[in-house]
């Protein structure tokens, strides 16, 4: 089955064709990042206007890479969460394409899409994967989910304030490491530090709490206090900050595996590109649990793309009438698909 998917939830405009949810046939991405660098952050109107400009060429470029576009079976599109104007561009383009081709339309939750970056070029049987603990870490979201099967998600917990990716970007600004998407620069700077650990440790919020929630706002404040003391180098602070975030993410994920008896761990979201997170999660999971599978997306599938949207559409196939496919900027990972945790409170 061939699915063409469109993704336009933030500043990327992407289109992809994927076969049977696992084989990437074609993919095209156009980014307006250069324009947002000038303003130090994403301006929603600028993002949407650039997507209006990019959407047709991106779709055409993708279709040109497919041997016979008439063999495409369905059209999928991200409906949220994301920027309202950006989502509208993608949704309306997908509707027009599906109508012109007389193909069914599949709406996809962008956060669920992140999970399916782990299924591209991977054909491990489902009975060896599920149940899986999923950690989604991005600029806007930090969530832990128990994935019992395709379309069967149980929300475990998430951030009560700021997302981990947002914390990375804001601390990067604080350290003068970039005004836009500085998280990657912060991680690079942290790797440059080879000195001793700081005598002052930053907080690992909620790490010992008997739940799966996260909090990073206090960590940002504590980091600012450390910077204001003007006694530690930028690389030293960057390393301590990164370690504080990653330690909490990893420990909470492993706690979820222990609580649920999951067979695998799936990582997703933009922050999944972080080298320390990728290494620490894999190493610690394999040292604590026998025969656990840890899936980490390819680097090019960590950031927004339409490949994982097509994969999510295939494995869920939530076909909807055109008039019911509408943008939902505030959509959550548990929006209509997840149920509250039901396991005992003891670990």
TrEMBL record:
Pfam families: TsaD (PF00814). It is found in: Cytoplasm. InterPro entries: ATPase_NBD (IPR043129), Gcp-like_dom (IPR000905), KAE1/TsaD (IPR017861), Peptidase_M22_CS (IPR017860), TsaD (IPR022450). Residues 25-310 form the Gcp-like domain. It catalyses: L-threonylcarbamoyladenylate + adenosine(37) in tRNA = N(6)-L-threonylcarbamoyladenosine(37) in tRNA + AMP + H(+). Substrate binds at residues 136-140, 169, 183, 274. Its cofactor is Fe(2+). NCBIfam families: gcp_kae1, T6A_TsaD_YgjD. Required for the formation of a threonylcarbamoyl group on adenosine at position 37 (t(6)A37) in tRNAs that read codons beginning with adenine. Is involved in the transfer of the threonylcarbamoyl moiety of threonylcarbamoyl-AMP (TC-AMP) to the N6 group of A37, together with TsaE and TsaB. TsaD likely plays a direct catalytic role in this reaction. This is tRNA N6-adenosine threonylcarbamoyltransferase.
